[in-house]
Write a structure and sequence with these properties.
This protein has one domain: 3-methyladenine DNA Glycosylase, Chain A. The chain is of the alpha+beta class. The structure holds a DNA duplex.
DNA sequence: GTCCTGATCCTCT
DNA sequence: GAGGATCAGGACG
C-alpha cells in the first residue's frame, strides 16, 4: 500500500518541473496535435490529482468547416480565440464535455481536441468518478476522459501552464504515431487531422 | 420566441 | 450495430 503511494507520487511529481511552455502551443495546430502524444495531462483539485498520457488527439483549424471557430467568435467558442496554452471546454450532446487545448496566437480560433488518455495517476479516483473498474474504460473517448479527470466547465479558458490543469513533458519517445481522419464529424472529415499512438488500447476508435 | 443540431456514451439486441 | 438520453448554442422568423 505504502509502496504504491510512493510510486504514484514519483510518477506525478517528476514531470511537474517540466510543464510545457506557452511556446509549445504557439505553433501550427497540426504539429501541436501530433507532438502532444506521449505527454502527460494533469488535473489537480480538491478531490485529488489525476493524470494520464495523451494517446489520441484531433486538430481543429480555423478555416476548417468542422471547427467551432469556422464561423467566427461566439460566446461559446470564445476561449478558442484566446492565447495559446489555454483550455477550451464545451458541452456536447446534452450530457458530455470535451476538452481542447488552444493553439496559435491570440485571435486565431484553432485548438487540439484531446480524445483519449492512458491513465497513470489517481486511478482509484478515476474509477470512482467513472463508476468503472477497467483501465481502458476510464479515459477512452473525449467525454470519458473529462469525467475521469474531473475537468469542470469552469476551467474553460484556464491557463494550462499553471499548477492546477496542465500538460507536462514525458521522457518516453519512440512511439509510432498514426495520422488519419477525424471522428464524428460530417464536414471536413476527409482531412487527416487525427493523431494517435499505434497499438495503444486506450485509443477510442481504430 | 421555436426548432434543430451535435468533435458522445451507454444499454440493449 | 442501433437507438435513446439530454441540453446549450445557433439559425431563423
Amino acid at each position: 500500500m505504502k509502496k504504491k503511494f510512493a510510486e504514484e507520487i514519483k510518477i506525478i511529481s517528476a514531470p511537474i518541473d517540466r510543464v510545457l511552455p506557452v511556446s509549445f502551443y504557439d505553433r501550427d495546430t497540426r504539429i501541436v496535435a501530433s507532438e502532444l502524444l506521449g505527454h502527460i495531462l494533469v488535473n489537480s483539485n480538491s478531490e485529488g490529482m489525476t493524470s494520464g498520457i495523451i494517446v489520441e488527439t484531433e486538430a481543429y483549424l480555423q478555416n476548417d468547416p468542422a471547427c467551432h471557430a469556422a464561423r467566427g467568435m461566439t460566446k461559446r467558442n470564445r476561449a478558442m480565440f484566446g492565447p495559446p496554452g489555454c483550455a477550451y471546454i464545451y458541452f456536447i450532446y446534452g450530457m458530455y464535455y470535451c476538452f481542447n487545448v488552444v493553439t496559435r496566437e491570440q485571435g486565431v480560433g484553432e485548438a487540439v481536441l484531446i480524445r483519449a488518455l492512458e491513465p497513470i495517476g489517481g486511478i482509484e479516483l478515476m474509477k470512482k468518478r467513472r463508476g468503472r473498474d477497467k483501465l481502458t474504460e476510464l479515459c477512452r473517448g473525449p467525454g470519458r476522459l473529462v469525467q475521469a479527470m474531473g475537468i469542470d466547465k469552469n476551467q474553460n479558458g484556464q491557463d494550462l501552464t499553471g499548477n492546477e490543469l496542465f500538460v507536462c513533458a514525458a521522457d518516453e519517445g519512440g512511439h509510432n504515431i498514426v495520422n488519419t481522419t477525424r471522428v464524428g464529424i460530417s464536414e471536413g472529415k476527409e482531412l487527416p487531422l487525427r493523431f494517435y499512438i499505434a497499438g495503444n488500447p486506450n485509443v477510442s476508435k481504430r
